[in-house]
Amino acid sequence: MTTTTSGLTAVRAGVLDYEAAWEEQRRLHESVAAGERGDTVLLLEHHSVYTAGKRTEPWDRPMDGTPVIDVDRGGKITWHGPGQLVGYPIVRLPDPVDVVAYVRRTEQMLIDVCAEFGLTAGRVEGRSGVWVPEDDRGPARKVAAIGIRVARGVTLHGFSINCDCDLAYFDRIVPCGIRDAGVTSLTAELGRRVTVADVLPVVERRLPTLLA
């Protein structure tokens, strides 16, 4: 299923292996970079997988031999899997390319999505992603992660938002290389089940925020 809003086409890709989604990203990136198609966002779930960005340290990785796929995005290691909505925007950034501004727009989109479900989330200085602030339940905890790459002025990789995933997967790694904060989900924070199917149309509606 595809929908187009403000010139941005969203593709619901279902559940894909990470490698298959990575191949599709590269195919779309080539088309967008060549001017053969417009900005496109893949929205999907992955089968359970750990992926490591370029800044991942050896001690961030699982100690139990769990396989990890090394990728060319920024950032460190994270987990993708069932109950987590992943978005891969393949969009052309305006000249001059401002990657930080694009990350901030992505964060704002995810903050707005959380707000629609009744969760107050925001930014943490010096850390990308979207966070639930420290409160009586514990320290600041990440509900959505961002890791991107820009090639030929067009973005790759993207964001993930934890809906109702099993947070135990994050216990095997140092998620995003951050040891002094936790990981959470919409379901865990709101005390009610919020599924990928619930979040998908809200993210689709908010995607134009990504465009400058």
- Largest sheet report: 9 strands, mixed
Beta content comes to 25-35%
Mean pLDDT: 91
Number of alpha- plus pi-helical segments: 4
Distance between the termini: 25 Å
Strand runs, count: 12
Q: Give the radius of gyration.
A: 16 Å
Anisotropy-based shape: globular
What class do helices, strands and sheet pairing give? alpha+beta
**Estimated helix fraction:** 10-25%
**SSE sequence, one letter per element:** EEHEEEEEHEEEEEHH
Low-pLDDT residue spans: none
Description:
The structure is a single chain. The protein has 4 helices and 12 strands. The protein is α+β, with helices and mostly antiparallel strands. Strands 1, 2, 3, 7, 8, 9, 10, 11 and 12 form a 9-stranded mixed β-sheet that branches. A 3-stranded mixed β-sheet has the order 5-4-6, with no helix packed on it. A hairpin with a 2-residue loop joins strand 10 and strand 11 (154-162). Helix 2 crosses helix 4. The radius of gyration is 16 Å and the shape is globular. The model has no long low-confidence stretch (mean pLDDT 91).
Secondary-structure blueprint:
Blueprint: E1 2-5, E2 8-16, H1 18-33, E3 40-46, E4 49-52, E5 68-70, E6 77-80, E7 84-90, H2 99-116, E8 122-124, E9 127-132, E10 141-151, E11 154-162, E12 182-183, H3 186-190, H4 196-206
Helix pairs in contact: 2-4
Q: Quick recap of the structure?
A:
By secondary structure, the chain is α+β, with helices and mostly antiparallel strands. The protein is 24% helix and 33% strand.
